[in-house]
Amino acid sequence: MHLIIPKDYDPKLSVKETQAAIRYIRETFQEEFGKQLNLSRLSAPMFVAKSTGLNDNLNGVEKPVSFTMADMGDETIEIVHSLAKWKRVALKRYGFDMHEGLYTNMNAIRKDEDLDNYHSAYVDQWDWEKIIGKDERTIDTLKATVRTIFKVIKHMEHEVWYKFPQAVHHLPDEIHFVTTQELEDMYPTMTPKERENAITKKLGCVFLMKIGGALKSGKRHDGRAPDYDDWEMNGDILFWYEPLNQSMEISSMGIRVDADSMLKQLKIAHAEDRLSLPYHKMIMNEDLPFTIGGGIGQSRLCMLLLGKAHVGEVQAALWPQEMIDKCEAGNIHLL
């Protein structure tokens, strides 16, 4: 358990006021976000059948919560880690057209998560996905979409300031683009997390691109599943977060794999056995649309905009008693 207790922390809003702010941020953000990216809200599953290959396996080592159902025989059912793959299938299934997309309120359980100020076993995010043309699978498309998302987040800062001026956390005015290799070249002796802290402290907000593949050092900056993001056209939106004196990831997103990039990445990950799964067959046969998509943390965004010290202040989850006690002593009130 890793926990940061800011010195002389003042939450500014009471628990009741915080709840009102959470509701306002979530409702306002998703409305503006959907409008700016041409996304429609859809309902989404909390669990999927393991045999479909639709669950996100994250870094490949986290185990999903699984169970069986009375009417499903011996079929293994898994609580989703995210809806990265499900969304792409949904776009085809529901007949979305070019440059249309969807967003959904995704709730997941990641039981192997290391709990700290940012991380919970309960994950709530806006999962989104949008159809693009094959010729739009480019870095330019990725950057343009990132800039739009950043613009909506900045808009939310002004909205929150109007409603809760005493609590709003001010954000930088610009987002910068840096690749993981450029970051390794800048800070070769640092760990990946130390590099993220260094660059976000310097620039304020960064979209860190090309995550998943090996760098010149032979090491990866971070893990990514090989079968949804194209590792050459993905990234994370990172903000420098002064209350905790470190970076905060708000979104992971990217251009999704086509047949060539998925096959290449599955070989690197020694996961070619997945090619027998229904989802992967659809990718290889080009039965699914080309898309861009990602996730935006709902509680993380509330935490960022309200200057909170712990995600548990804006999310009702389960925490070790030791963490609860230390937080209370530091004026951090976990829900």
From TrEMBL:
It catalyses: L-aspartate + NH4(+) + ATP = L-asparagine + AMP + diphosphate + H(+). GO terms for biological process: L-asparagine biosynthetic process. Residues 23-320 form the Aminoacyl-transfer RNA synthetases class-II family profile domain. The keyword NADP does not apply. It is an enzyme of class 6 (ligase). The lineage of its organism: Bacteria, Bacillati, Bacillota, Bacilli, Lactobacillales. It comes from the Bacteria. It is found in: Cytoplasm. Signal peptide: none annotated. Its EC number is 6.3.1.1. Coiled coil: none annotated. The keyword Cytoplasm applies. GO terms for molecular function: aspartate-ammonia ligase activity; ATP binding; catalytic activity, acting on a protein; transferase activity. It comes from Levilactobacillus koreensis. This is Aspartate--ammonia ligase. Pathway: Amino-acid biosynthesis; L-asparagine biosynthesis; L-asparagine from L-aspartate (ammonia route): step 1/1. GO terms for cellular component: cytosol.
